[in-house]
Design brief:
- The protein is built from 15 helices and 10 strands.
- With 388 residues, the chain is of the alpha/beta class.
- The chain folds into 2 domains: 7-357, Homocysteine-binding-like domain (TIM Barrel), CATH 3.20.20; 363-388, no CATH class.
- Helix 12 packs parallel to helix 13 (318-328).
Length: 388
């Protein structure tokens, strides 16, 4: 299905680099809210502890969430993400709140929209956007949960689609301008989110642009949690995206070569919102990158022509976003890469079949489970025949 892009944001992306907001969790933590503050009146007798359940604040402390959004907008953010990273049934199950996915998502969107409306009333010439944040859930559908059972999974594709469907509908009903599937660590989870979005659109829901952002967690490695490199792009390139990018776990130094590579292979806008460096609990803020050290690094990325959208993730604050906005102001945005329409496949690695590739021989790996004949040769010690 072709997605109708917002003409206003498309025009802005052609003109300049857009600024995404920073961390929501970092700002909430600074307020040192106690259990009672998280519960509010409605959940004062809830059977489980809810301190740290940030998304619940959309219902119990909406003024705080709205204020955080407003701080980011006043710092220069063009796009603010809703406080809905875990607002779907799978993540909410940790609190016994599986049925609140739609409500939390809608409330989160409304908090962000109110902040945008407040800022735009004060600055009528500004155009700001709300991106509905859709996190990866707390489970993976690609990795076994039991070393003795390779097929065991913490969740299924169908369960993910159902959970994401309620979240997507809540975000759309709350008025988001964009949908951001972010912190992707399992491409199959992300595919479920994209499918849920396209189901909603096909059912008559308001269509908005879709953004995607993946995370890589190992310093010095170019692989995500499930082992993919930037091959993940081949896995999701069928989705009509406004942008693709990277966020979260790695700081700017570790993310830099990955963003550079992605900017050359994806024919869509490119986004980046790294952490304020790798977490360090011994530091006062928990992160090493200050506004004055992070912003110049992201300006260099912009000057290299890699970015259309830039912001911050964990550990970043309105001060970081203000400095980033100042640093990239006036820098020409990334020109969308032209990619030849070759056959592109992906497992853990990307495979591109070009005209000069000639014949591509695809063989199954040796497998004692799938081939009784091969297993018999191995058990008998006849390795020479097995290898032949």
């Amino acid at each position: 299905m072709a997605i109708q892009h917002n003409a206003s944001i498309e025009a802005l992306l052609q003109d300049r680099i857009l600024i995404l907001d920073g961390a929501m969790g970092t700002m909430i933590q600074q307020r040192k809210l106690d259990e009672a503050a998280f519960r509010g009146e409605r959940f004062k007798d809830w059977k489980k502890d809810v301190k740290g359940h940030n998304d619940l604040l959309n219902l119990t402390q909406p003024a705080i969430i709205e204020e955080i959004h407003r701080q980011y907008l006043e710092a220069g953010a063009d796009i603010v993400e809703t406080n809905t990273f875990n607002s779907q049934a799978i993540s909410l199950a940790d609190y016994g709140m599986e049925n609140l996915g739609y409500e939390l998502s809608k409330a989160g969107a409304e908090c962000a929209k109110r902040a945008v409306e407040t800022v735009q009333r004060a600055q009528p010439n500004r155009r700001c956007f709300v991106a509905g944040a859709i996190g990866p859930t707390t489970k993976t559908s690609s990795i076994s949960t039991d070393v003795n059972s390779p097929a065991a999974r913490g969740t299924t594709y169908d369960e993910l689609v159902k959970a994401y469907g309620a979240q997507v509908q809540g975000l759309l009903d709350g008025g988001v301008d964009l949908l951001l599937v972010e912190t992707i660590f399992d491409t199959l989870n992300a595919k479920a989110a994209f499918f849920a979005i396209q189901q909603a659109f096909a059912s008559g829901a308001r269509q908005v642009p879709i953004m995607a952002s993946v995370t890589f967690i190992q310093a010095g490695s170019n692989r995500g949690v499930t082992g993919q490199t930037v091959a993940f792009w081949n896995s999701i390139s069928h989705v009509p995206l406004l942008s693709v990018g990277m966020n979260c776990a790695l700081g700017p130094k570790e993310m830099r070569p990955l963003i550079e590579e992605l900017s050359h292979i994806a024919p869509v806008h490119i986004s980046a919102h790294p952490n304020a460096g790798l977490p360090n609990p011994l530091l006062p803020t928990g992160f090493p990158e200050t506004p004055d050290t992070l912003a110049p690094q992201l300006r260099e990325w912009a000057e290299n022509g890699w970015l259309n959208i830039v912001g911050g993730c964990c550990g970043t604050t309105p001060d970081h976003i203000k400095r980033i906005a100042e640093a990239v102001c006036g820098v020409k945005p990334h020109t969308i890469s032209k990619v030849e329409p070759y056959t592109r496949l992906s497992g853990l690695e990307a495979v591109t079949i070009r005209p000069e590739s000639n014949f591509v021989n695809i063989g199954e790996r040796t497998n004692v489970t799938g081939s009784p004949a091969f297993a018999k040769l191995i058990l008998s010690g006849d390795y020479e025949t097995a290898l032949s």
